[in-house]
Structure formats: structure tokens, C-alpha cells
Design goal:
There is one protein chain. The chain has 11 helices and 10 strands. It is an alpha/beta fold and 310 residues long. It has one domain: NADP-dependent oxidoreductase domain (TIM Barrel). The chain has an 8-stranded parallel beta barrel with strand order 3-4-5-6-7-8-9-10, surrounded by 4 helices. The protein has a two-stranded antiparallel ribbon with strand order 1-2. Helix 6 links the parallel strand 8 and strand 9. Helix 1 crosses helix 2, helix 2 packs across helix 3 and helix 4 crosses helix 5. The longest helix has 17 residues. Keywords: Oxidoreductase. It comes from Kribbella sancticallisti. This is Aldo/keto reductase. InterPro entries: AKR, AKR_Detox_Biosynth, NAD(P)_OxRdtase_dom_sf, NADP_OxRdtase_dom.
């Protein structure tokens, strides 16, 4: 296992993150987390909405400080309370304190805004996050499932107001869902953010037999993944995970595992280096187009590299 810096910070994170969403019990989670730690992994990602914070807290126990523990808030905590959801200050404060209790810790390494809340000004969210950082309850902030323009607005405001900015972005990314290449990934790279890629196997679809494809596009992608895996002597899951790391060093695949064997298969993707020809075949099968304006304005339209000497 190798390590990356978490966005523009000095925090060291392993290049594969472990998601805790599907943990069903302490008995299931303990061997998976132990195997992940033995492999050098140090990031455990959960959320108040997953119902797994107590499991993670019990498994980590007195090892907590050796891990980068991340959780999220936004989604409803109590559907009978109109203020028990969203990205406003009141929900952040109550949700954070509850997460800390369940995780048996007095701080979170990373606290993610779980998704975009159209009703809360981004200024309020960032100031509340900054207050939590200054209080020592969280160390770094991240944002998940939000449009590029709102994240850009937030980080620009944070820069000029000397607030804690978003160091990480958590978004879906796989061969079956490449949308982030249009705006979100370039934005994250421009701000120096890390990108935690959730559902890198498209909820398991990319590891399934070709016959499980639900449409022609899925059939083409699953066929390409299987072909490359067969040629390289690796599993389809390893090919799909290896591909998420090809386009950008900012991307950190976030994997979930229901068994130690599944985790081991996923971690083995770190040793898979896809040849350019294989990458081309995989990407051609997706039929993805980055769209306007990126494919309308060539990068060298005004300043060809041969002219500016870079």
C-alpha cells in the first residue's frame, strides 16, 4: 500500500479507502478492517445515515488514532423533525456530536457534507465546518455529491475569508459512470483536492458476468472488462478498479467489502497496470463523450505545447 496526501493538506491517506456502508455487524466488520489495516490501509469512511458508526467505533477501539476516520452528515436523522436534515449549522452541530458518540472518539479526521442542500447557503455550511475545525471536533472538511460550481464557490469563499476549505470530493466514478470527467474532476485537480471515488465497480456490476448486463452499453463495457482481465490474468474487478486510477492521481477508489476475500481481490488492483491499448479499449466501450466546452476548445488552440515549450 502506498499513500497520498489528502488534498492540499499534510494528511497521509492510503491509496484505497475502505467504505463501511455495508457492514452489518461487528463480527463481519472486524476481520475486514483488520485485513485492510494489515495491508497498510488507514482510511475508514462511514456516515450517520449508514447505521455503521457504532460498528466502526467498537472495532477500532483503542486503535482509533491510527486510522483516518471519516463520516458524513446531511441526510435525515429524524423524519419528524424538519431541522434534522440538511447542511445548516444546527444539523451539523447535532449530527456531528451524535457521530462522535457513536464512533467513540472526540474528533473526526474528515467530515463530509453528504450531499448538496439547495436550501442552505454554502457560506453557512463552510463557516459551521470552520467552527468545528477550530473547536477541534474535526480536522478536515470534504464534500460529496455536489455540483462543481457550488464546490468552486465554496472553496473560493473559504480562501478569501480564511475558512477551512473542502480538501476532498466524494463522487461516483466507474467505467459505467464517467460524468465527473466533464467538470468535477478537472475542478478538483485545479483546487488540489483528493477525489474519493464511490461505487468504482458500479455497485458490483463491473465484476459480474457479461450475461448480467441490463442493456447494450453495459454489455459492451462488461465484455471489454472481461477481455482485458482474461488477457492480463487478473479479475474483472481488478481491471475496473485499476482503470479508476489511470486518468488522475487525485482519484482514490473507495471500496466496500462484505468479506476478507473480496477485500483482498480489490486491493490486488493496486498491482495492476493497464497498458494504454487496454485503457483505450475500455474507454471506447463506454461511449462516453466529455461534451462542450471541453471537446470544443482544444487545449492547444491558442498555445500549442510546441510553441510554449512545455
Amino acid at each position: 500500500m502506498r499513500y497520498r496526501l489528502f488534498g492540499p493538506t499534510g494528511l497521509r491517506v492510503s491509496e484505497v479507502l475502505l467504505g463501511a456502508m455495508r457492514f452489518g455487524s461487528v463480527e463481519q466488520a472486524r476481520p475486514i478492517i483488520n485485513a485492510y489495516a494489515d495491508a497498510g490501509g488507514n482510511v475508514i469512511d462511514t456516515a450517520d445515515a449508514y447505521g455503521t458508526e457504532e460498528i466502526v467505533g467498537e472495532v477500532l477501539g483503542n486503535r482509533r488514532d491510527r486510522f483516518v476516520v471519516a463520516s458524513k452528515y446531511t441526510l435525515p436523522r429524524d423524519r419528524s423533525d424538519v431541522n434534522a436534515a440538511g447542511n445548516h449549522r444546527k444539523n451539523l452541530r447535532l449530527a456531528l456530536d451524535a457521530s462522535l458518540r457513536r464512533l467513540r472518539t472526540d474528533y473526526l479526521d474528515v467530515y463530509w457534507v453528504h450531499c448538496w442542500d439547495r436550501h442552505t447557503p454554502i457560506e453557512e455550511t463552510l463557516r459551521a465546518l470552520d467552527d468545528a475545525v477550530r473547536a477541534g471536533k474535526i480536522l478536515y472538511a470534504g464534500v460529496s455529491d455536489a455540483p462543481a460550481w457550488i464546490v468552486s464557490q465554496g472553496n473560493t469563499l473559504a480562501h478569501f475569508r480564511d475558512w477551512t476549505s473542502f480538501a476532498g470530493l466524494q463522487v461516483p466514478y466507474s467505467l459505467l459512470r464517467r460524468d465527473i470527467e466533464r467538470e468535477l474532476l478537472p475542478m478538483a485537480e485545479a483546487f488540489g483536492m483528493s477525489v474519493a471515488a464511490w461505487a468504482p465497480l458500479a455497485h458490483g456490476k463491473l465484476a459480474r458476468p457479461v450475461e448480467a448486463a441490463e442493456n447494450d452499453r453495459e454489455h459492451a463495457v462488461l465484455s471489454a472488462v472481461r477481455e482485458v482481465a482474461g488477457e492480463m490474468g487478473v479479475t474483472p474487478a481488478q481491471v475496473a478498479l485499476a482503470w479508476t486510477r489511470v486518468r488522475s492521481r487525485a482519484v482514490l477508489p473507495l471500496v466496500g467489502a462484505s468479506s476478507v476475500e473480496q477485500l483482498a481481490d480489490n486491493l490486488a488492483a493496486l498491482e495492476v497496470e493497464l497498458p494504454p491499448e487496454a485503457v483505450g479499449r475500455l474507454e471506447s466501450a463506454t461511449g462516453f463523450e466529455v461534451g462542450f466546452p471541453t471537446d470544443f476548445v482544444p487545449a492547444d488552440l491558442y498555445h500549442p505545447l510546441s510553441v510554449i515549450g512545455r
